Amino acid sequence: MEMKAIVNALAALAQDSRLAIYRTLVQAGPAGLPAGKISEITGIPPSSLSFHLKELAHADMANSRQDGRFVIYTANFSTMNALIGYLTENCCGGNPCTPASSPCCTPTEETPS
Amino acid sequence: MEMKAIVNALAALAQDSRLAIYRTLVQAGPAGLPAGKISEITGIPPSSLSFHLKELAHADMANSRQDGRFVIYTANFSTMNALIGYLTENCCGGNPCTPASSPCCTPTEETPS
DNA sequence: CCATCATTTCGATTATCATTGAAATATGGA
DNA sequence: TCCATATTTCAATGATAATCGAAATGATGG
Questions:
Q1: What number of other Cβ atoms are within 10 A of residue A69's Cβ?
Q2: pLDDT greater than 60 at residue B110
Q3: Most exposed among B58, B59, B92, B113, judged by the fewest C-beta atoms under 10 Å?
């Protein structure tokens, strides 16, 4: 994943409404949710929601499929995975998430015993 | 880490110049870099750089300390850690980075064997 | 306390983003 | 076809962000 895609993904999530939308989609899992339901859950009016969903989709953080007269949106987990991977590898001092330790970022070598 | 802080942290990184600055700081480690050096490395003019550094500091992604007539900036690793933690826990379908598996995000239960 | 260097603030400009009602489009069923 | 429902586009508005030269501020050593 290249720099530009990373900035797009970060920008997609760096907004109250969109982060809320994305979290809602994550909770819904692969089944996803129709736009109307997302609007209902988040309280974001349809036209605003559509704007934000387009942003998320454009950043490849969400996908959509037509189901009858509904449009079902789903979180794109692989992009989130790639984003976390990038942050871990490029923004954590070269100490990627070592197995068996939840905290990922440690500035220098100094592997905590 | 609460929602607002997360959005701030994401917004701080969701910008070409600032992501570049942050990565530069990460590479520099806890020793950090003076503003002038960052400007030199990234090619961002001092006034723009100062603007972006303030953004990063305000989002608690970077810290500064005075050293003689230099101002040394350092990446705030703990905030990045918290950010990665949030994304992993809240945006990855409840499958936080299980030890001994690098990919964090899997939509449903289905723990890969 | 002055000359010098490092950094920040100011100010003006331009661009981009967020919001939302109303109208348009698409879909499926009677 | 025609209606009801779901979603998107349009358009207008207000808000926020990015850029950078020039001037101001802060720090140090002589």
A1: 7
A2: no
A3: B113
Name the fold adopted by A3-90.
Answer: Arc Repressor Mutant, subunit A (1.10.10)
pLDDT tens-digit readout, A10-26:
999 999 999 999 999 99
* A58 CB below 7 A from strand D atoms: no
Q: What residues have CB less than 8 Å from B39, skipping those under 6 apart?
A: B45, B46, B49
CA distance A24 to chain B (A): 9
How far is residue B18's CA from residue B49's CA, in Å, rounded to a whole number?
A: 9
Q: Which of A79, A80, A84, A95 to mutate to test the interface with B (most CBs of B within 10 A)?
A: A84
User: Is A29 part of the contact surface with chain B (CB cutoff 8 Å)?
Assistant: yes
Average pLDDT over residues B65-89: 96
Burial (CB count within 10 angstroms: exposed 0-12, middle 13-18, buried 19+), residue B85: middle
Least trusted range by pLDDT, from A3-7, A10-14, B106-110: B106-110
